[in-house]
């Protein structure tokens, strides 16, 4: 695993982790929903989310750590009080989920192989390719014939009209619009290997 870097306010990151020894993390659809519920509780208040995908034994998120000043205003944190650590919140998410799964399935021991890995996203090109990479992962791993049919990714939420906690408008803006977002995903499906080579070795 790569050297752990600090998550800094205002920066974009690819976050990822997997089951210990590639163990299954999500055994039932309810498990996926519960993990996302915990994510909304522990992480979403401190990071804007642009894309995600949960697969049976690993997860991906594309996030931007919220600016400290914005957090102070929203949560009325005084300047002389420390802000909640996003790294600690990610740890709370994994710990809470692992405890719930251990209890539910009468298992013991470590569920996740490591803490969330992370890589900073530094360009628009990398942002769009990473969003595609995250959404295409279920098809890449042979879990489904068409990535857009996977229930546990943000692909359709970006296209939907209903309420979402995702940064939908910003994602579509990065791609150049709704039609461009759809086209990019489907046109690059045949060239996944070249995009995967840019990001895949950073993780898992």
UniProtKB/TrEMBL annotation:
Gene3D superfamilies: Transposase IS200-like. It comes from the Bacteria. One of its GO terms (molecular function) is DNA binding. One of its GO terms (biological process) is DNA transposition. Residues 8-137 form the Transposase IS200-like domain. PANTHER family: TRANSPOSASE IS200-LIKE DOMAIN-CONTAINING PROTEIN, TRANSPOSASE, Y1_TNP DOMAIN-CONTAINING. This is Transposase IS200-like domain-containing protein. It comes from Pontibacter mangrovi.
